[in-house]
Structures are given as C-alpha cells and as structure tokens.
Design goal:
Blueprint: E1 5-8, E2 11-14, E3 18-19, H1 30-42, E4 47-49, H2 58-66, E5 74-79, E6 81-83, E7 91-93, H3 97-111, E8 116-122, H4 140-152, E9 156-162, H5 166-172, E10 179-181, H6 192-201, E11 204-205, H7 225-234, H8 238-249, H9 262-269, H10 278-285
Parallel strand pairs: 3-4, 4-5, 5-8, 8-9, 9-10, 10-11
Antiparallel strand pairs: 1-2, 6-7
C-alpha cells in the first residue's frame, strides 16, 4: 500500500486534496457549494487549490465562508491570468509583475486573509491552453522578483510554479519552489524529467488534468482499454485507476481532483486505498503517452 501522506512545503498533507475550480458550477446553488467543500474537509482534504479568477471570485468567496482556521487547510492560489469572458478561453494572460502583485492582492481580499499559504505563478510556457504574446512575454527573473518580494512582505508563504518547462524550473530553484503544477497524466507524460527533478529537490508535483485533457483532441485516461480492464479487475472506476496510478508513480505526487458532485468527491478521496501489484503497474505503465501541447490564443 502506498503512503497516503505527502509533503507540501515541508508540511504533512493528505496526498489527495481538492481542486476548487469546479465549485463554479454551483454558482446558483451556493449552499450546495459550501456543503460540498465542507464535506471535502470532513473526508480529510487539507489542501485546496483555487484562484481569484475561478468563477470571478465566487470560488474564493465560498472557501472564505467554509474553511475555518481550526481545519488546518493549506490554501493554494495562483496568479498569471485574469478573467476574459469574451475570449476563446475565459482567461487572458496577466504575466507582468504589476499584474501578479494585483492578483495576489485580489486573492487576499476575496479569501479574507492577510497571507496566502502558497501562490503558484502560472507561466504558460507548457501544456494546453494560452500562450503569452506581446507585453505578456515577461522574463522569469522579473516575475520571481515580485513574487519573492511579496513573500518577504509576508503576503505569500511559499511560491509555486505552473505550466512551466524544465529550464524554467531549473532557473527558479534558487528562489525556492514549493510545488509545480503542470498538465500530467497516465496518457500525457511529457514532463517525466521535470517530475524527477521535483522529486530530487523535494518539490511537490501537483498535476492538473490528471485524467487527461478537457480540450478537444487531447488524450483521456478513461479512453484507454487497459485502464478499463484494471478497473474491472479491482472493482473500481476508470477515473479512480488513473488517479491511483499517479499516486503510485512518484511519492511527491499530490492530487487536486475537482468535482461538484459529492459521490465523485468520495470516490476521489478513496483512491489512496487502491493497491496495484507489479503486474498491474506494468500494464498501466505500458499505456502510450501522447503530448498535451495544444496552444490556444
């Protein structure tokens, strides 16, 4: 059995957390959103991933209402994008230093706190989605300068990175990196070298799109016959197999699956109890990896 406890910036956490973006789907059912997040905490979630641009502040507002100090929940936010309701994606890059600082201040206000536990700098160098253009192409050193200043001011506890390349992570290491969030799953393992560097440096690897991409044309874990066969043999679901594989693959993996459904939440939290023998792992490891690089915008 794998360990269900991992490390996030030196803090012990349950390896399965909660990605709060899906709470946006409950915008018209606020009481249900609060109840779902409360249930996540009751099930053992002690790290929650969020951003001010999730639901234009709605998600942060729900977290502010629901999560109590005594819950001991690590709240991880992100900066580097702003809402863009009329765009091809509902986001636009916000990479300039002054925009990063403004986004931190926005998160502080909406979460009702004077310090953010961890803030991920979403760089947009890798993975599916937006790419920066024009004045949004900003040097990493300029971004890290403002992020470290915010940390020195006590507004940020730790700095993470998101959607970054191996070279960017290497350059950022001297500044101190708590976690990396990149698109990564059983069917999209482009970043294996980056994952190994994180493991060597004691950095949490927190994959988004852990079951494959949501954009058209991206591979999905649940489309794989091998995943379905393993799920049937173990009496679990294909999504549970995909999430459990990530936990088995490397000990620094922390998951943040999102859902707006209580039953799915309970299924996600149960993946830490799923055991794979060597033969099953070999079958899953043999699944073909395909690229998740689909730039948009």
């Amino acid at each position: 059995m794998i360990s269900t406890t991992g490390s996030f910036d030196g803090r012990a956490v349950h390896r399965v957390g909660y990605g709060a973006m899906q709470l946006e789907r409950l915008r018209d059912r606020r009481e249900d959103a609060v109840a779902l997040l409360r249930r996540a905490v009751e099930l053992g979630v002690d790290h929650v991933d969020t951003a001010e641009f999730y639901g234009f502040g709605f998600v942060n507002d729900v977290i502010r209402e629901t999560v109590r100090g005594e819950d001991g929940v690590l709240v991880v936010s992100k900066v580097g994008a702003d809402p863009n309701p009329r765009g091809p994606l509902p986001l636009r890059p916000a990479q300039r230093p002054e925009e990063l600082r403004a986004s931190v201040e926005d998160n502080l206000r909406s979460l009702g706190t004077d310090r953010l536990d961890v803030v991920n700098l979403r760089r947009l160098d890798a993975g599916p989605g937006l790419r920066p253009e024009g004045d949004q192409v900003v040097d990493l050193d300029d971004q890290l300068a403002v992020m470290t200043a915010l940390r020195d001011e006590g507004k940020i506890g730790a700095i993470g990175l998101s959607s970054v390349s191996l070279d960017v992570l290497r350059r950022a290491l001297p500044a101190g990196v708590a976690c990396v969030q990149n698109a990564y799953s059983l069917v999209s393992r482009d970043d294996e070298d980056l994952l190994r560097l994180c493991l060597a440096e004691g950095i949490a690897w927190v994959p988004y799109f852990p079951l494959g991409g949501t954009f058209p044309g991206l591979p999905k874990v649940t489309d794989e016959p091998a995943v379905h066969a393993v799920a049937q043999s173990l009496g679990v679901t294909p999504p549970q197999v995909g999430l459990a594989w990530l936990l088995h693959h490397a000990p620094n993996v922390l998951l943040i699956p999102g859902t707006a459904d209580a039953a799915h939440l309970e299924a996600n939290m149960a993946v830490g109890e799923i055991a794979f023998d060597a033969a099953t792992l070999a079958v899953l490891d043999a699944v073909e990896s395909r690229s998740s690089e689909v730039p948009i915008g």
